[in-house]
């Protein structure tokens, strides 16, 4: 009997790796997924759970200047720890150069198209499985404390209308009539009607179980030391234990660690590990009916079955820096300015993890043209959960030689 052909190897069991495996196995491929951690430990599971199709990139006009003002505020939405680091300085300069209107508009075209594809994939995955993940396709609210920010939020929402994303303005009294959780000081909200919320850990864990039932193999506690080259081709990986795993194709979906692995073959995917935090609350009498973002604070608030998740902030401080407890506390304090009953809530869990942020605000998805058999999917920042299913489909189609459902040179991993 002939030897069995090596599998397609997916490095990383976050939402992008799992989604890629899903679309591969649906097309009859043999897949092995490896990860350094358990599924519950990654940035995908720690996500806010707000699936905001059509979300703008980090590189909005003026954000880099605002970031400098926030730099020394440990509770600001974007906190960059001041330090002498050449890589960080290069990333910051590139980020600043991309914070302009022309780039923003080009990004919106790409992200809105990718979001639409991802919405289709989410619905298909959930229709074909029994994953219980509190999926709600009922939209989300951009909640504003002040009339001025509500006006600005309405202008931002109008930018999405040409791409088919619907929204409407709701005044504070209407919001409170729907749900008494909102304080009288809240001015109103912009309701994005095409988006969704999901329990991210329940979805990723459920998807992993479904994949295993369909024949996908998993190995955890596997840290990749290097990619294995044969000429100009990548034929697998070498683990830090010395073991080599052979593959017909290798898919690098390891979040911010993708850059570290890729550098072994002189491929650069410049990313900063931007740490996000979440805090889950229980014991609340009332919770918002929909997921929401508290506009002035950039904090996402998502109701699950019996908990309320507060998530947000980007902290660029390098790897292994200790958690900043005041950033966790700020989630609760800021939320209490908008919602009633927060002071009586019980903290049920806390988390912090790294989001892979590129300097141009777009993910890297596609084939590595310098090395046959290598594919990359990373750099989704805080939009990994939203865009992962669609990005995974593009990767699977590319790997198997199909015409991708969406193509753009702005997503190429070779653009750096």
Structural class comes to alpha/beta
**The CATH C-level class name of the largest domain:** Alpha Beta
Strand content: 25-35%
Overall body shape: globular
According to CATH, what is the topology of the largest domain?
A: D-Amino Acid Oxidase, Chain A, domain 2
Calculate Rg over CA atoms: 21 Å
Sheet with most strands? 9 strands, mixed
Query: Separation of termini?
Result: 45 Å
H-E order: EHEEHEHHEHEHEEHEEEEEHEEEEHEEEH
Description:
The protein is α/β, with parallel strands linked by helices. It is 30% helix and 25% strand. The protein is built from 10 helices and 20 strands. The protein is globular.
């Amino acid at each position: 009997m002939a030897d069995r052909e090596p599998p397609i190897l997916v490095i990383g069991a976050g939402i992008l790796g799992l989604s890629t495996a899903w679309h591969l196995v649906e097309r009859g491929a043999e897949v092995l997924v490896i990860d350094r951690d358990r599924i519950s430990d990654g940035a995908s599971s720690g996500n806010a759970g707000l699936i905001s199709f059509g979300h703008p990139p980090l590189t909005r006009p003026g954000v880099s200047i605002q970031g400098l003002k926030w730099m020394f505020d440990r509770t600001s939405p974007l906190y960059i720890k001041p330090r002498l680091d050449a890589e960080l300085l290069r990333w910051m300069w590139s980020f600043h150069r991309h914070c302009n209107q022309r780039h923003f508009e080009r990004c919106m075209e790409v992200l809105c198209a990718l979001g639409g594809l991802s919405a289709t994939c989410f619905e298909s995955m959930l229709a074909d499985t029994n994953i219980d993940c509190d999926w709600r396709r009922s939209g989300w609210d951009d909640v504003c404390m002040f009339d001025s920010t509500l006006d600005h939020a309405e202008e931002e929402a109008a930018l999405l209308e040409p791409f088919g994303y619907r929204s409407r303005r709701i005044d504070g009294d209407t919001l409170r009539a729907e749900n008494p959780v909102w304080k009288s000081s809240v001015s109103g909200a912009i309701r994005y009607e095409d988006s969704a919320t999901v329990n991210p850990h329940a979805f990723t864990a459920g998807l992993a179980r479904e994949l295993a039932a369909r024949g996908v193999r998993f190995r955890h506690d596997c840290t990749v030391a290097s990619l294995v080259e044969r000429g100009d081709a990548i034929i697998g990986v070498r683990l830090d234990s010395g073991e080599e795993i052979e593959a017909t194709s290798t898919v690098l979906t390891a979040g911010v660690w993708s850059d570290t692995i890729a550098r072994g073959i002189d491929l650069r995917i410049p990313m900063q590990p931007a740490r996000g935090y979440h805090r889950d609350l229980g014991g609340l009498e009332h919770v918002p009916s929909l997921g929401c973002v508290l506009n002035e604070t950039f904090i996402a608030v998502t109701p699950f079955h019996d908990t309320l998740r507060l998530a947000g902030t980007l902290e660029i401080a390098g790897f292994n820096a200790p958690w900043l407890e005041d950033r966790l506390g700020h989630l609760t304090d800021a939320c209490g300015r908008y919602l009633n009953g927060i002071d009586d809530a019980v903290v049920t869990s806390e988390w912090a993890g790294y989001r892979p942020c590129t300097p141009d605000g777009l993910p890297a998805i596609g084939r590595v043209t310098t090395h046959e058999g290598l594919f990359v999917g990373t750099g989704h920042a805080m939009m990994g959960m939203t865009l992962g299913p669609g990005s995974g489909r593009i990767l699977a189609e590319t790997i198997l030689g199909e015409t991708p459902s969406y193509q753009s040179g702005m997503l190429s991993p070779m653009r750096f």
